What does this fold into?
Amino acid sequence: MITVENLTFGYGGTGFRLRVPKFVLQDNERVAIVGPSGSGKTTLLNLIAGILTPEAGRIDVAGTDVAALSDVERRRFRASTIGFVFQDFALLDYLSARQNILYPYRITPALTLDTDARDRAEALAAACGIGDKLDRHPSALSQGEQQRVAICRALVTQPKLILSDEATGNLDPDSKARILDLLFEQAALAGAPVLAVTHDHELLPRFGRVLDFAQFREGAEA
Amino acid sequence: MNALYLAFAYLRYHWGRSLVLMLVAALILFVPVATQILLSTSERALVARGDATPLLLGSRGSQLDLTMAALYFSDERPEPVPMREVEAVWDSGLAIPIPVHTAFSSSGFRIVGTSLDYFDFRELALSEGRGLSVLGDAVIGADVAATIGKGVGDTLVSSPENLFDLDGVYPLEMPIVGVLEPTNSPDDQAVFVDIKTAWVIQGIGHGHEDVVTAAEVAAGSEAVSNAAVVQYQRITDENIESFHFHGAQDDFPASAVIVVPNDTRSATILKGRYLDGENPTQLIAPASVIQGLVDRIFRIKSLLDVVTTIIAIAAFAAIGLAVFLSYRLRAREIATAVKLGARRGMVLRLLSAEIFTLLLISTFIAAIGTAIVARNAESWVGWLLALGA
Amino acid sequence: MHALKPFLAVCFALVASSAVIAQDRPRVVAVNYALQYFAERLVGDDADVVFPVPADQDPSFWRPSIADISMIQSSDLILLNGAGFATWVDRVSLPRSKLVNTSAAIEDQFIVTQSITHSHGDGGEHSHEGLASYVWLDPALAIAQAEEIAAAITARNLASTDEVETRLEMLRTDLEDLDADARSALADLQNVTFIATHPRYEYFANRYGLSVRSLEWEAGIMPTEADLTQLRALAEETQAQVLIWEAMPPAGAFEVAAAVGLQSIVFSPLAHGAEGQTFLDTYADVISAMAEIGTQ
It folds into this structure.
C-alpha cells in the first residue's frame, strides 16, 4: 500500500508547485494518472520513487517513509522496491535483451544476480512472448518487443510498486492495449500495484481508477 | 565485476572504436619499450663488438670511420694502411695483428679480406663446407647465405668497382667453400676471403689467363675475349699457377688492422709507439670510439623520449576525450541507471572499468609486441647495424 | 719473429692441450727437406715434422690438395723458406700466426737472378725480379735458418728452451764443420767452371767462390738433342769441366756428358731428401765427390 499525505514540492525558480493532500494506492490497484502536460504527473512518480525529495509531507511505500531516507538508502529502496517502465523503453543498445532485463542487478549492490534472478528473467520473457529473442540486441527487436523487454526489466526485481511513465506512448494502437494488459497481468502475478501516467484516454477503462492531476497543480494558478 | 561486465559488453559492442583506442594505446605503450629494447641491445652489440676488439691500427683519419669499417664492415673507406704495419706489429712480438681489407663488396655484402687468424679471433665456426684454403675461396656469413640463397658449391662475383682506376681489373668470381654459423654480429653479413684474394680483386695480384666474358660463359666457350660485355676473372685449377703479386707485400693495402695484444702491458707499450702525431698510422681502442657513438645515440634517444612522452600525453588525452565524449552520448543510459536505483559513483565505476579494460588489453598487445621484439632484438639489431653501417 | 709472445704460448698451450686427444704430438710443416731436417734436429721427439711434398714433385712448384692445405692449416708451425721458394704459399690461406719465414734475417744476402718480363695483354709490360731460393746450400745461411726455426719452436713451447738451445748448438757445430770441410775441399776448384742442369747452386757457388753456369733441363731424364746442343755451346764458351746433375739421370747420361768432355756429379739440392741419407750425408758426399775432381 502506498500512502501520500500533505505532499508539497516545487522546482526552484520556475514557480511550479505541486501539492498532494492525500493519495492512497491499494495493493493490486491499477491507477491511471491523467492531466495536462506540465501538471506534475511525472514529478509525482519521481517523488514516490525517491528520485526527487519533497519539501514537506509523507510518502509511504509498503511501509517505508521514502522522504525520510538518505540518498544511499533511497537508491537501494528504488532498486529493490520500484519497477520503472519508460515511454522511450530506455534499453541499452550494447546489451542483449537478456542482459537488459538483468541490468538492474548490475548497477546496484542492493540486488544480487543469482540463478533465481536469471530464471525469473527467462520466465518473464517467456510470459511476455520474447523468450526466443533474449539474445538479440534492442536494434534487432520491434518497438513492441523492446517495451516487453522493458517490462520484464521492471518486474524482474520483484518490486512492490510498478511506476509506468507513458509506457505505451510510443506504440501503435494495437500494441498499446496488449502491452498494457501484459503489464497488468505480470504486476498482478507479482502482487504489485501499478501507477501509470498516460495520455491515452481510450486505455483508461482498463484501469481500476483514474486520477486527474489538474487538482494538484498550484503553479498553474499562480 | 558488474561494472567490468558492462564495460566489456560496451567495448565489444562498439568494437571498431574500441579497437582503434586499444591499438593507439598499445602503440604508445609499445614504441618506447621497443625502442628501449632495441637501443640497449644495439648498445650491447656495439659495445660487445668494441670490447671484443682490443685495438685497431689504421691510417690517421676519422677514428669512427676506421672502427666502423673494421668492426662493422661499413661503407666507410679509411685510407689504406700498408701491410708493413702488420709486419711491424708481428716483429714487436707484443700482439697478433689481423689485417682486414673491406674495400669491395658482392651482392651488397662486404667482402672482408683477412687472415685465418680472424676466424680464430672471432671464434667463427663453420656450419657448412670448409675454411679458406686456396686463393679465390670465399666463406660467407649466415645472413649472406640466407639472403642470396647460395651455399657451398655456388659462386659469388665481386661488384665492379672503379675505385683504384686500374686498367684491366675485372670483378672476380669466387667459389663459396664454407658458410659460417650465425653470430648475430656483422660477421653474419660478410663475405670472407683471404686478404690475398682481396688484392687480386684490387688488381695487385693477377693471373695471366684471359678474362672470362659473360657471353662466353653463356655460349659455353671461353675462347674469344671481347670487351663489350661484363667481364670477370675466375681463378681455376688451370690458371691458379699464373696468379702472382706485383711489388713487395709490405706495400700492399689493408683497410685496418685488428691488433690483439698479449697483455695490458703490451697494449700500453704498443699504444705508446703510435702516439706521435707525425706517424701516418694510428692505434685506437675501438671500445672508446664506440662508447662515444653510443653516448651520442643515447643523447638522441633522450630527445626521442621527450617526443614520445609528448605524443603519449597527447594520445592518452585523445583517448580520454574519446571515452568522455562517449559518456556524453550515454547520458540517457546514465539517467536510466539513476532511475533504476544505480549506486552512487556508478558512472565513475563504469568509466574506470572501461579504461581499465582498454588499458589491460592494450598492455597485453604491447606486451606481445615487446616479447616479439625482445626475442628477435639480437638478429634485428645485427641487421640494423649492418644496414646503418 | 724473435721476440715471441707469451700470449701465443698460452694460446698454443690451450690449443695443444685440447688437440692432444686428436693428435699425439704437435705438428711442424716444412716447405722443403732442408728445413724439415733442421726442424727435426731441433725439436727432437717433441713434435712431428712433416714435409708434405711427394718425392716426384718439385717442392718449388708443388700444388697442395685441399686435404694438404687443411693439414698444413692445422699445424702448429709452418716453416717457410722465403726467397720466393714454394710459390704455392702465395695462393693458399695460411694462419699468419703459425708462419715462420726462416730467411727473414738474411734477406740482405739474397741473390737476385734475372728479371722475367711479361705483359698481360690488356696492360703494359711488367717484370718480376727473380730471387735464387736454395739458400740452405750455403751452410752459413742454413745456420741462420736453423736459428730462426729454433726461436719459433721455443716461442711456441714446442720443446724446452734448454733442449732446443743444446740441439741448436749441435746442429750449428755440424753445419760449421760441414762448412769448414767444404771450404778446404773446394779450395782447389776456384778455377774450375761447373755447369748445372738447373739453376740451384747460386748460394753454394757464392759461398765457396765457385763458378757455376746453369741450364734449364728437366730433372732425372735423358737430355734431349736440343739440351746437348745447348750444353756443347755452353761448355765451349766456359771451358767447363764438370756437369752437376740435379738428380740421378738414366743410365748412359754420364757417358753423353763425357762425350762433351764433362765429368758428371749428382748433387741433389736437398729440397727433397735422399733415401737413407741426411742433409749432412748428402752434402758431405757431394763435397768429397767434388774434391776428387779437384785432385784429378
Observations:
- The longest strand of chain C covers residues 112-119.
